[in-house]
Amino acid sequence: MADSTVTSTFRPSRFNVVTRTDDGDAVVLYNSMRGSVFRVQDPVGQRVHDLLHNRRSVLRRPGPDSADESRLFDTLVTKGFLVAEEHDELAEADALRDRRKNRTDRLELIIMPTEACNFRCTYCYEDFALGRMLTEVREGIKSLVRRHRREHGIERLTVAWFGGEPLVAFDVIEELSTFFLEFCAEEGIEYSAGITTNGLLLTPEVARRCVELGISNYQVTLDGPAHTHDSSRFLMGGGKTFDEIIANLTRMAETDADFRVIVRTNFTEANSVHVPELIEQLGGLYAGDPRFGVIYRPVGDWGGPQGEESEAYAGKQAEMTKLDLCSNAVESGLAPADDVFLKPNGSVCYAASPWSFVIRPNGLVNKCTVALRDPRNAVGQLGADGDLGLDQDLMSLWVDNDDAKDSGCHSCFFRPSCQGAHCPLVRIQEGTRPCPPQKVWIGPTITTVASNGRTR
Questions:
Q1: CA of 328: how far to CAs of 264, 277, 333, 336, in Å?
Q2: Are the beta carbons of 18 and 49 closer than 8 angstroms?
Q3: What DSSP element (H or E) covers 130?
Q4: Which of 54, 211, 313, 414 is 20 to 30 A from 192 in CA distance terms?
Q5: Among the residues of 167-225, which ranges form H helices?
Q6: What's the rounded Cα separation, in Å, for the pair 211 and 195?
Q7: What 8-state DSSP symbol labels residue 235?
Q8: How far is CA 193 from the centre of its chain?
Q9: Distance between CA 41 and CA 27 in Å, rounded?
Q10: Helix %, strand %, coil % for the chain, to 5?
Q11: Contact criterion met (CB below 8 Å) for 193 and 214
Q12: Cβ–Cβ under 8 Å, residues 220 and 198
């Protein structure tokens, strides 16, 4: 970037969004290269709007006789909302994408110790075909980590446990986690781990052991209060689950352990009116505890055998409902955990990065945890020696379908965040541009972030 102390002319960043609040007395600013959101009250807000609203404007720094204007101008430069006229922002976005794709210092493994599950959720897309991970696959994973350290010098290993319900095969998690902790400690590798679990088996004893094994991040789903959750997330063979999950989470909250729990709520048009009941309950239990956060997701058509019975909810109304729920959560003292999507690289799907792999119980290597039955998702087969056996043509479908090949994505204001790679699966299966909802509804999104006090 050009040195702003010697640059004389500037222009608004191509990655800016400037919108007015609903009450009209302030503006909200967002820049996707910086991932920053600010609310600016009028009359300063109006001046900021005048400076930034026309991307083609060429602006000069005010002279020393206009001290207030100079301070405002310099602040906008410092925050990235104004850039030097000669600065090539498209090249900067290219470099951001290339750093992500070309890095060899990290390895991300999404490990499915089993695809069996003790739940039968109404909208689930999985078929539970594969059971407990084979011994030779577990050994292959260990060899994979050793090999990547030896050949690529990885400095960071990230593991995400997924299923099925991964805690059904907790012994596999224990075995591999013990190896990861010991190997990373010996080699000086930064290690982090998380788990997506329905929470029923996350008893105090299991939770304590998970923390000991370095699993610090948890995603647990509660679909509204008990009466809606138990109608969509019930036991295999029938049976309620809500009360036991809440009890498990509350026991975790009563400890001083270092962890992060994200409570996810999948909502439909029908059950969304009941979600505030859950928010009130969670607020009474976990408000003010920084270890607990919440996210809300409309139920999607994820390709499961349930078909049209999944009550998929999409479009503007679904997104507005999500934003309303986030605001409701803030009012109840809970912390929404969605800010990452606005940051650089924040809306890029894990499947779009060449160093991220899904390892299934039979050693099949996938890129995506959703399209488990799509043959284009089977990019390799893990060998005992740690070789992923990758098909580079299939890999390219996932990691090269991005802003480099899409002119619309290349020029988009949201490009640094999603890089045209928000969901490679959409490009593969539908041949369309996978714009994230945060981009499509950017005005309401950043206004909600600002009104919730999460500006930065």
A1: 14, 10, 9, 10
A2: yes
A3: none
A4: 414
A5: 170-187, 204-212
A6: 11
A7: B
A8: 15
A9: 6
A10: 40, 20, 40
A11: yes
A12: yes
**Tokens encoding 11:** 């222009």
C-beta separation of 138 from 176 below 8 A: yes
Per the CB < 8 A criterion, the answer to whether 272 and 321 are in contact is: yes
Instruction: Give the tens place of pLDDT for each residue, 191-220.
Output: 999 999 999 999 999 999 999 999 999 999
Instruction: Please state the φ and ψ torsions of residue 341, each to the nearest 5 degrees.
Output: -65, -20
Do you know the residue count of the chain? 456
Q: Which two tokens stand for residue 9?
A: 């002319």
Mean pLDDT of 93-110: 97
pTM of the model: 0.93
Burial class (CB in 10 A: 0-12, 13-18, 19+), 65: exposed
Strand order in the sheet with 82-84: 59-60, 9-12, 82-84
- pLDDT (average), residues 218-235: 97
Residue 250 phi/psi, 5-degree rounding, is: -65, -35
Q: Where are the extended beta strands (E) located within 306-407?
A: 335-336, 356-359, 364-366, 378-381
Structure tokens at 143: 């060899």
- Categorize the per-residue pLDDT at 456 as very low, low, confident or very high, splitting at 50, 70 and 90: very low
Q: Could you tell me which of 358, 357, 368, 372 has the C-alpha nearest to residue 425?
A: 368
SS3 298: strand
Show the 3-state SS of 143-174: HHHHHHHHHHCCCEEEEEECCCCHHHHHHHHH
* Euclidean distance between CA atoms 372 and 421, whole angstroms: 19
Q: Return the pLDDT at 259.
A: 97
Q: Which two tokens stand for residue 315?
A: 């479009």
Helix (H, G, I), strand (E, B) or coil at 183: helix
